[in-house]
Amino acid sequence: MATQLSNRSRMLTLIGTVITQFALGSVYTWSLFNAQLADKLEQPVSKVAFSFGIMSLALAVASSLSGKMQERFGVRKVTMAAGVLLGASLLLTAHASNLMLLYVFAGLLIGFADGTGYLMTLSNCVKLFPNRKGLVSACAIGAYGLGSLGFKYINMYLLTHTGLEHAFDIWGLIAMGMVIFGGMLMQDAPVQQAQSNATSSNRDYTLAEAVRQPQFWMLALVFLTVCMSGLYVIGVAKDIGQSYVHLSVASAASAVAVIAVANLSGRLVLGVLSDKIARTKVLAIALAVCLVGVCALLFAHLNALSFYAAIGCVAFCFGGTITVFPSLVSDFFGLNNLTKNYGLIYLNFGFGSFIGSIVASLFGGFSATFYLMLALLIVSMAIILTIRMPGTESARGAKLSQA
After folding, report:
1. Is pTM beyond 0.90 here?
2. Which of 9, 180, 256, 290 is close enough to 5 for a disulfide, judged by CB 3.0 to 4.6 Å?
């Protein structure tokens, strides 16, 4: 069990995870580089920005595979290798001479490196603190969010004072050093003691067993809904403000700061709250907040203040949900196979990053995606209010038959 590791080892692993997550979160400063990359490659910004979509998908795929890598090599070696790949990919990106190389280096390689380290280190750390899963998730994923904020200032300074290529080089060296150092502090979480009662909702499910449970796909749909909503609004918040709400450029740009604060607040508030009340109730709160925000975007008379409040609601839900979800999945399907089980669900992070934009382009702009978000949120709310642990029904049926 987790108590087999000393408190010192557990705390060092937590510290290493926080350092690693902070560095991995730096990839969310990508939009800072789009304009200069477009000038260098003589390509439209939209084509350059597509590299981030590829990165998000590669990140999600790598997250789903990281459990296998940890089983074979251990969390320390895989994390350090991810750090080397992240640094090398950023160095290669600095010297990408055409759009295809940019998609390979910045999209596939950076995304794969980031995803390999992200979910594996998070899941490993959660396993070490089974009684504080929500708080540990909030610390780790909060660090991931802070990384995007901290590296925003680092990378803006580098772009201003050193130029595009040197900015990538220095960013790569800093991020690689932090991930390697964080990995050196980590230890693998011991295998949790399995429940002897096969009908217990606390048993460990393998991935093959989990995917046969309807609850797995219900949770996957909820996760897809929140990721699609959050990633779409985060990605086009400035454009929504200008084109949909008709704000000035400066007012619309302030949406980025609103989203950052709301996102981080959701991670911390809902992460801590999930250790105090049922995580399904926490998710219901998050979805209700998101519903308010989406309804405001669709039906309210929007000005700057109401627009900030609406996108803040969506970002709060997104940040809180991705913090609580690893612990929620472990509640339903056990801790030992968390990286694999959550890894498959996490693929929806990548899919979600595309769906909102595709719907908007096919059906005429922001409103179409907002209506899809509204419909999926209503379905997800119904799911999260009625879902029960796997095995609960069979256990109740067994007791009734014995009676």
Report:
1. no
2. 9
